[in-house]
Specification:
alpha/beta; about 15% strand; globular; 15 strands; about 350 residues; two-stranded antiparallel sheet; disordered N terminus
Length: about 350
């Protein structure tokens, strides 16, 4: 790995109005980067939340917003022409495991076609020195060896969302191998925090508890998740952005390591490495809100996995960082933001 960064570096962040994209863009702007943010502002969840995030970013003159769908081939080609991006971070995707069952084509359009457009843009760019992209802990699929390691085989996804993220890793490897494009995939583990997505458990549970409504708890509450606080995710991404992968001289096709390559390609886990049972997570939310939840205990839904846990040693070795924010602190910060954003008397 090599590290380089100048104060005038320019980054393209796709999904900039999304949860992680917003926080990353804000951090990069604070660090002196010029940021071009791309988002299609779709209505998978409340677009007004996305616009509110954008309003904050647009207060900085070094942020430029492009209302664009990454699946728009011609639009993406125009975006990259003469852009001067030194790093591209792809956080645009159709998210959500359960929604794949309702609308599978949305995942192919955004996560496969859109990602190909990004790869092609980077390939033909003379300035891009590193593509960083969001993968997901869901790629581990049917794996039951915990914690999940980047050295594990991940060929048994259990949702189309997971399959598209695994496909992104394979597509990126092809471009790293054929064109020498340095790429790094980041397998995020259940990201949460202020400005989070309304379709995620923390947001839905907080809203329902505040409104005196019951919450649906899948897997009878026994599922375990490696909840990872947004600031830890962003710190990891920023460090990875300026740590450009090099070909691994020890990699061999006789015993291929799934985490590295003879090409300039890497994948890392970014997780808290401290899995929490869902019922405990709900207890922490109750404590932060000061109210009790009424729970509907339900079986697991198709595409869900019983547990996730991240082995982050590879990330720590590469960039000297691993997430560590406890859920008690992270959930408290989320609830404080929620009450401020929606109002203490709101039951939205």
């Amino acid at each position: 790995m090599t590290t380089s960064h100048t104060t005038q570096s320019s980054a393209l962040v796709t999904g900039a109005a999304g949860f992680i994209g917003f926080h990353l863009s804000r951090r990069l702007l604070e660090n002196g980067w010029n940021v071009v943010g791309v988002d299609n502002l779709n209505d998978y969840y409340d677009p007004s939340l996305k616009r509110a995030r954008l309003e904050i970013l647009q207060k900085n003159q070094r942020f430029i917003f492009k209302h664009l769908d990454i699946a728009d081939r011609a639009g993406m080609e125009r975006l990259f022409e003469g852009s001067g991006f030194s790093v591209v971070v792809n956080l645009a995707a159709q998210a959500g495991v359960r929604y794949t069952i309702e609308n599978p084509r949305a995942y192919i359009d955004a996560n496969i076609v859109g990602f190909l457009n990004i790869l092609e843009g980077c390939r033909h760019s003379e300035s891009v020195r590193h593509l960083v992209y969001a993968s997901s802990s869901s790629v581990y699929g049917a794996n039951t060896s915990y914690p999940f390691s980047v050295h594990d085989n991940v060929d048994h996804p259990v949702s189309l969302y997971a399959a598209t993220k695994k496909s992104n890793e394979l597509m990126a490897h092809t471009y790293s191998h054929l064109y020498g494009l340095p790429t790094t995939g980041l397998r995020f583990f259940t990201v949460y925090g202020p400005w989070g997505r309304p379709d995620m458990a923390l947001f839905k549970f907080t809203r329902a508890i505040r409104a005196g409504e019951s919450i649906d708890v899948y897997g009878q509450g026994d599922m375990r998740r490696d909840f990872t606080y947004i600031d830890d995710i962003v710190e990891g991404v920023v460090r990875v952005m300026t740590t450009v992968p090099q070909p691994d001289p020890e990699w061999t096709g006789d015993a291929p390591d799934p985490s590295s390559s003879a090409a300039p390609w890497r994948v890392f886990n970014i997780g808290n490495n401290d899995p929490v049972e869902l019922l405990r997570f709900i207890e922490v939310i109750e404590e932060a809100i000061g109210e009790k939840a009424v729970k509907n205990l339900l079986p697991m839904q198709p595409g869900d996995v019983p547990a996730t846990a991240a082995d982050v040693r590879a990330l720590s070795d590469a960039v000297g960082f691993e997430p560590s924010t406890p859920i008690e602190e992270g959930v408290k910060r989320f609830v404080e933001w929620y009450l401020q954003y929606y109002g203490k008397d709101s039951e939205r």
